[in-house]
Hints:
Layout: H1 2-18, E1 52-58, H2 81-87, E2 89-90, E3 96-99, E4 103-106, H3 112-125, E5 133-138, E6 142-147, E7 153-156, H4 164-170, E8 178-189, E9 192-198, E10 218-223, H5 225-255
Parallel strand pairs: 6-10
Antiparallel strand pairs: 1-2, 1-5, 3-4, 6-7, 8-9, 8-10
Pfam families: Poly_export, SLBB
Signal peptide: 1-23
GO molecular function: polysaccharide transmembrane transporter activity
Amino acid sequence: MTSVKYFLALVAALVLFNSCATKKEILYFQDASEYNNTPINYVKPVLQPNDILKITVGVLVEETAKPYNRVSSGSSGGGDVDLMKLDGYLISEQHVINFPQLGTISTKDKTTSQLQEEITQLLEDGGHLKDPTVNVRLLNAKVTVLGEVNGPGTYDFSEESVTLLQAIGMAGDLTINGKRKDILIIREKEGVYKTTHIDVTSADLLKSPYYFIKPNDVIIVNPNGPKVKSAGFITNLGTLLSVFSIVLSTVLIITR
Length: 256
């Protein structure tokens, strides 16, 4: 019995050892005091193919703007976003939309604000409307957060500037097992996928071009060292316990 107690104590000690994580592996922005008064560089995302836009045109005399506005299916349903997407302008693979009265408009390398200004100019210069107010919004912005977070999944957002930390917050924050020093971000840029690794334990993130996420970003939080060790250890522990059980049974039979 003494040997059994010794073995169980050893197993408990090994489990504790393999599940330990240090403070430096867990805390966010550990050098935050060095970045007080850091200016914020807001970056608006550039429009991409398959983005869906809501474009509204307003003027003093509302009737004259009707030919430039699509009739919304969601007008009687409280502005449901899914219905608005059906009525929105889908950007083609050629980076264009087809706008009423104006025809084909290029969206390549433009933000929503830049497209808004261009449509306003086209309406005024073409003599279509006087002093129009144009509003362009992206309807299908989303980010996917996977791995060691409390709520993995795909999240919609309507803001033009969303930070990596806000995206992590949408997913319920990292679990205690999330690898904070090596968060993978996958981003589509100019028709190809780009990857980068971010350390959220350092406030260097504030200066990174990846501090603000872009629509369709994928964020992957891998497990940290203790979690990986623990997973492997538990698998090996199961095998070890099985072997020990057989040996112990054999010893008890022999010594009877």
